Amino acid sequence: MCCSILSCRHVPDSEGEDVSSLGSSSAEYFGGMAQECVRCGACTVEIDGVSARACLTLAVQIEGAQVRTVEGLAPEPGKLSVLQEAFRRHHALQCGFCTPGILMSLDNFLRGHPQPDEAAVREHLAGHLCRCTGYVPIVNAALDAAAKLRQTDHA
Question: Does position 6 have pLDDT exceeding 70, yes or no?
Answer without folding.
Answer: no
